[in-house]
Amino acid sequence: MAGVLEPHPDATQRELRSPDPAVLSVLLALLAVAVTILLWRIVQGRRRAGKAVLLLGLCDAGKTLLFARLLTGKYRDTQTSITDSSAVYRVGIDKSASVTLIDLPGHESLRLQFLERFKAAARAIVFVVDSVAFQREVKDVAEFLYQVLVDSTVLKNAPALLIACNKQDVTMAKSAKLIQQQLEKELNTLRVTRSAAPSSLDGSAAGGPAQLGKKGKDFDFSQLPMKVEFLECSARGSKGEEGDADFEGLEKWLAKVA
């Protein structure tokens, strides 16, 4: 019809390219909500997945007594564990934060089996060392610690690691500094021998890399992906069964990682 004006093509294209401001506002609001929900789920998932603090160490290192003292404050006679024990431990002055303490058996035939079960949930690891028997057990302590440190899941998650030098109430106990130096030396030796061994013998089949620390440098704990700290403590305490445990540093560390 001659009297009808046809829309100019350029004007039509401009209309198509210019979205309604109201629609644009709604889309942006929906996008913001979706991003917020996604971030919230990621944070909550991480909190749920990493609430455990694992207590590791050789038999008779004092893990179970530390576990009991932290939870009850009281001394109790313990014996070698053959299964795990777990409980919620509340930290801080107001006890508003919490972690799940898991005491794992230290027997050679059980410890790696239980580590495999719980390692993915670990927010932190407390590796308990018998400071009195350390000089005699240093090779066994280093061997177990090496197996923990080269585990692929532990390396990936990089949980905070505390080496708790227990039994400091005994006069012959070795200091945390000496224990750190000796462990670094033994771990360096293990790294050299394991990296030279066939893959079927060096533990790589269990998922751990052969190399620990930085190649070409002597090993020290600062080379690890997780933060490592050493402290001295005593689950028994200087006054024995009737006294309090001496692990204020351990309690502060747990509050920090919770």
Topology:
Blueprint: H1 9-17, H2 21-49, E1 52-57, H3 63-72, E2 85-91, E3 97-103, H4 111-118, E4 122-130, H5 134-149, H6 152-157, E5 160-166, H7 176-196, E6 228-232, H8 248-257
Parallel strand pairs: 1-3, 1-4, 4-5, 5-6
Antiparallel strand pairs: 2-3
Helix pairs in contact: 5-7
Task: Give a structural overview.
- With 258 residues, this protein is of the alpha/beta class.
- The protein has a domain at 51-195 and 227-257: 3-Layer(aba) Sandwich (Rossmann fold), CATH 3.40.50.
- The protein is 42% helix and 16% strand.
- It contains 8 helices and 6 strands; from the N terminus they run ααβαββαβααβαβα.
- It has a 6-stranded mixed beta sheet with strand order 2-3-1-4-5-6, sandwiched between helices.
- A hairpin with a 5-residue loop joins β2 (85-91) and β3 (97-103).
- α5 packs across α7.
- It is globular, with a radius of gyration of 27 Å.
- The chain starts with 8 loop residues before the first helix and ends with a helix.
- Residues 42-49 and 200-208 have low confidence and may be disordered.
- InterPro entries: P-loop_NTPase (IPR027417), Small_GTPase_ARF (IPR024156), SRP_receptor_beta_su (IPR019009).
- It holds the Pfam family SRPRB.
- Its main location: endoplasmic reticulum.
- Keywords: Endoplasmic reticulum, GTP-binding, Membrane, Nucleotide-binding, Receptor, Transmembrane, Transmembrane helix.
- It is found in: Endoplasmic reticulum membrane.
